[in-house]
């Protein structure tokens, strides 16, 4: 349920802390304010009661009724004689009212009573006697509720809410200032992961962030130099190893040795050349060129044509046309690696089946052979470089890089390589490419 970004996680934590702090301070403020507020209200109640008592005492008995009517009309103060049969409702048992009642009783006497409802009239009712010792001559006076309630409560809450919003806005700015360099680092790291060189990160801001940015820029420069050195080494390896192999092959073919021996030695040279090619492909890393729309059916036919000319039977099934956005050269190498892998372990006698189509959200190329297959518990291990199944597959030629190269190419396409058992025996190697531009239509079968 929590947001995933550091920005919002930190912001929500700061917001929670500020809200709790504001709530705590509001309770402290109320606790400290209530006694002072109770004293002020008690003084007002006592003043009203004393003025009312003085007015009643000094007024003629015949004029008391007119005086009570005048006080109710002008001041909103109602005064009624107290009777033993009065129906009363006590005040709420809250700390402010307890403080208020204590202060009023201290000034008017312990005989003072309070009520929130007298008969059917609601308000703040307080009793008083014209003469402290005369229990018979007692009155009830009702003050308007607005004189007792704190009129500044909601105004104070408004100011508190405004202060909280200002604090939250400042907290958001602070957290955003911290998370922005982290987002830049994440984008730069993603660019490095995809094989691109990111721009230099600005080495400014807080000292800790500047140190991290400086270290990241230094690392980026070192990686760029390592990539340049690797490309130079790969170019040298390709030239310095393949050129002698070509001369060696030419010398063998012109040596006049028996044909069977020449064929065996040429096959060994071709295997060495293929291993060198796999090392070079694996060393190149992620493809650098942009994705291009490509008809996968046409690609399969182009790649398999050279195998057909060698007399290898390859059956192609599926769509007449299926487009996807791909890195063309790496995908050609991946498909060729799967075909070579299938021929190496299944042999040239059994035909290969290649199926092209769309499955879920992927454009798929499946290469199926009738070799010994791969046990399910060994599938993930076979994606690692320099890995072979010696017990499962008798032919141990190669460097064990074929499937590792294919898996890397698929990851560069944001796709995946599936290695599944084939019904009846064999292996199904499936290239799953994101189907962002797929337009396949008709399905048929081509030999």
Automatic annotation (TrEMBL):
Keywords: ATP-binding, Cell inner membrane, Cell membrane, Kinase, Membrane, Nucleotide-binding, Phosphoprotein, Transferase, Transmembrane, Transmembrane helix, Two-component regulatory system. The keyword Metal-binding does not apply. It holds the Pfam family HisKA. It is a multi-pass membrane protein. GO terms for molecular function: ATP binding; phosphorelay sensor kinase activity. Residues 236-437 form the Histidine kinase domain. Its EC number is 2.7.13.3. It is an enzyme of class 2 (transferase). This is histidine kinase.
């Amino acid at each position: 349920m929590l947001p995933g970004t550091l920005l919002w996680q930190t912001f929500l934590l700061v917001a929670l802390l500020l809200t709790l702090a504001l709530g705590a301070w509001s309770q402290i403020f109320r606790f400290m304010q209530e006694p002072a507020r109770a004293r002020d209200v008690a003084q007002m109640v006592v003043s009203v009661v004393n003025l009312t008592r003085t007015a009643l005492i000094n007024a003629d008995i015949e004029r008391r009724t007119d005086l009570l009517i005048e006080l109710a009309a002008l001041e909103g103060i109602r005064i009624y004689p107290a009777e033993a049969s009065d129906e009363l409702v006590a005040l709420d048992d809250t700390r402010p009212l307890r403080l208020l009642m204590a202060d009023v009783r201290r000034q008017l006497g312990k005989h003072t009573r309070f009520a929130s409802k007298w008969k059917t009239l609601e308000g703040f009712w307080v009793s008083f006697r014209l003469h402290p010792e005369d229990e018979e001559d007692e009155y009830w006076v009702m003050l308007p509720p607005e004189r007792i309630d704190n009129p500044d409560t909601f105004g104070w809450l408004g100011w508190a809410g405004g202060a909280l919003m200002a604090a939250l806005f400042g907290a958001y700015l602070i957290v955003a200032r911290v998370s922005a360099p982290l987002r830049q680092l994440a984008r730069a790291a993603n660019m490095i992961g995809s094989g691109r060189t990111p721009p230099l990160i600005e080495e400014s801001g807080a000292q800790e962030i500047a140190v991290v940015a400086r270290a990241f820029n230094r690392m980026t420069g070192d990686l760029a130099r390592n990539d340049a050195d690797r490309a130079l080494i790969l170019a040298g390896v390709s030239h310095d190893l393949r050129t002698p192999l070509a001369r060696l092959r030419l010398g063998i073919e012109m040596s006049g040795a028996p044909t069977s021996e020449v064929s065996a030695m040429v096959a060994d040279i071709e295997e060495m050349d293929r291993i060198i090619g796999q090392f070079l492909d694996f060393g190149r890393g992620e493809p650098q060129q942009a994705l291009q729309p490509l008809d996968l059916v046409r690609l399969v036919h182009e790649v398999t044509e050279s195998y057909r000319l060698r007399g290898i039977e390859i059956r192609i099934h599926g769509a007449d046309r299926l487009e996807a956005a791909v890195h063309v050269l790496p995908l050609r190498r991946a498909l060729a690696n799967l075909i070579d892998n299938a021929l190496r372990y299944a042999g040239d006698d059994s035909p290969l089946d290649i199926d092209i189509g769309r499955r879920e959200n992927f454009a798929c190329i499946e290469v199926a052979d009738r070799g010994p297959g791969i046990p399910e518990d060994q599938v993930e291990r076979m994606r690692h470089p320099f890995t072979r199944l010696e017990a499962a597959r008798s032919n141990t030629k190669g460097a064990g890089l074929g499937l590792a190269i294919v898996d890397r190419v698929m990851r560069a396409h944001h796709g995946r390589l599936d290695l599944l058992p084939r019904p009846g025996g064999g292996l199904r190697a499936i290239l799953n490419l994101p189907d962002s531009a797929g337009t396949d239509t008709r399905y048929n079968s081509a030999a």
